[in-house]
Amino acid sequence: MNNPTENYLKILERLDFYKLLFIANSVRNKYKGNKIELCAIVNAKSGKCSEDCAFCAQSSKYKTSAPVYPLMDKTTILEKALEAKQYKVKRFSIVISGKKPSKKEIKDIAKTVEFLSRKEINTCASLGLLDYDEICYLRDHGLQRLHCNIETSENFFPKICTTHKFADKVRTLEAAKKAKISICSGGIFGMGESWEDRIDMAYFLKSLDVDSIPINFLTPIKGTPLAHINPLSPFEALKIIAMFRIILSKKDIRVCGGRPILKEFASWIFLAGANALMTGNYLTTKGFTYIDDLEFIKRHKLEIDF
User: Fold this and answer.
1) DSSP 188-250
2) Which residues sit opposite 119 in a β-bridge?
3) Which domain holds residue 112?
4) Closest to 204 in 3D by CA, of 238, 170, 228, 179
5) Nearest 10 degrees: CA dihedral of 154, 155, 159, 163?
6) How far apart are CA 39 and CA 186, in angstroms?
7) DSSP conformation letters of 59-107
8) Which end of the chain is flanked by fewer CB atoms within 10 Å, N or C?
9) How many domains in the chain?
């Protein structure tokens, strides 16, 4: 039997760029209609990460200008979540630096999740490499979705991180599935990976049956090993979105960090198949304001899924 990655590579080589976008947009319309879902994050604990992910400003291995502070209190997180909700943000995620939280941090995050849930806020969290019992504990306190990016293909992963393995990410995602909690997992593009890596990654996420796929484009950060990388061209970025929409046709394709690289082609993300956006600021880089993104979606005659 032919390898699906090889088959898709051949299709990409033959298919005209505009035809690819036409197909992706048709798939989006079929499964997602004209509704766009917004999510936002809070960088709830920043810096001093023990891991060496080559793209990350928060690694203690690199000298960057990223802020360093401990876990935020639940009141501060609530304020940020309520602000996001005011602007029709459907999901709000608590993100922390580090390989995984301490036992005390997990308890504090669980209390915060419970606090947010009482305010009818859809909570997500990105907490590193959790095990099954920890995920169940957070789920029982109201966590609705767990985020854990696989970042890239299994083959390319060792080139961007050596302090943990691709398999460690997969174990966390499989534990989340076992705990019957929604999963968000995607990665970063433009780190030097090949098209084969990108397609392998898409099919792997399909095999895991993830619910939401965040697509980030590398923003080279001074002080990190990938600081020298040239950003992707807008057309290549759009081609990545379209490819993920076609392979993961029924899932949420969520455009997140690095959107500025699209420049004047930013509005094409919907034509390429995206049906979700991260709005507001990212972890250590600036994003788009809530108002800007609401107007952006409105200009394209699309509706907010809220």
Assistant:
1) EE-SS--HHHHHHHHHHHHHHT-SEEEEEE----TTSTTTTPPPPPHHHHHHHHHHHHHHTTT
2) none
3) 4-304
4) 170
5) 40
6) 15
7) BTTS------B-PPPHHHHHHHHHHHHHTT--EEEEEE-SSS--HHHHH
8) N
9) 1
- 179-230 confidence digits (pLDDT tens): 999 999 999 999 999 999 999 999 999 999 999 999 999 999 999 999 999 9
DSSP at 34: T
What stretch of H or E contains 276?
Answer: strand 276-278
Task: Say what the pLDDT of residue 288 is.
Answer: 85
Residue type, 102: S
The helix (run of H) or strand (run of E) holding residue 278 is: strand 276-278
Instruction: Give the contacts of 246 (CB within 8 A, at least 6 positions apart).
Output: 20, 23, 24, 27, 273
Which SS3 state, helix, strand or coil, does residue 182 take?
strand
Other beta carbons within 10 angstroms of residue 33's beta carbon come to 12
Specify the 3-state DSSP secondary structure of 268. Answer: helix
Provide the token pair at 234: 């807008």
Furthest-apart CA atoms within the chain: distance in Å = 55
pTM over 0.85: yes
Residue 176's CATH number = 3.20.20.70
> Hey, what are 265's tokens?
């082609």
49 three-class SS: strand
